[in-house]
Specification:
By secondary structure, the protein is α/β, with parallel strands linked by helices. It has 3 helices and 7 strands; from the N terminus they run βαβαβββαββ.
């Protein structure tokens, strides 16, 4: 299982997440996005509706229903009701079910020392579990993979 850590530096999660999810969907994949609270889910859902006026990111939450029909499912719990093979972790979330997915994107705020330290702990845990790790650093022009 592959875990990609995305170090947010040039823009916040609200700008980076829609771009990454567009790539996920363009690749024919479904995703689970885990966030820290119901309020945060609502905020991220609103971002996905309005992020790009030229595109639409189909998604839903438990409030919307029809989980199996949603290409992107936003949740606060470890569930996979849409059969996703891609897990996206935000807000410092972690999952004991990484092995249930083909790939995990772990997005963390590089401007927050506590978030960065927590990401390092998740990196160590994923490494100890034998996952393939990749580290991406955000630049003004996009993402650059750095040596792990």
């Amino acid at each position: 299982m592959r875990v990609d850590f995305y170090h947010l530096q040039a823009s916040p999660l609200e700008r980076a997440l829609p771009q990454l999810l567009e790539r996920v969907l363009a690749g024919g994949n479904r995703a689970i996005v885990m966030a820290s609270s119901d309020d945060r889910l609502e905020a991220l859902s609103n971002v996905l509706w309005t992020a790009n006026p030229n595109s639409w990111l189909p998604h839903g939450t438990a409030k919307d229903g029809f989980a199996a029909d949603q290409p992107v499912w936003l949740t606060t719990s470890e569930e996979n009701p849409n059969g996703a093979r891609m897990l996206v972790l935000t807000d410092g979330m972690s999952s004991s079910r990484l092995g249930d997915f083909d790939r995990c994107l772990d997005l963390f705020d590089g401007g927050n020392a506590e978030a960065t330290a927590a990401a390092r702990a998740r990196w160590s845990a994923a490494k100890a579990a034998g996952h393939e790790l990749h580290y991406w650093q955000q630049t003004e022009t996009g993402w650059k993979e750095q040596g792990a």
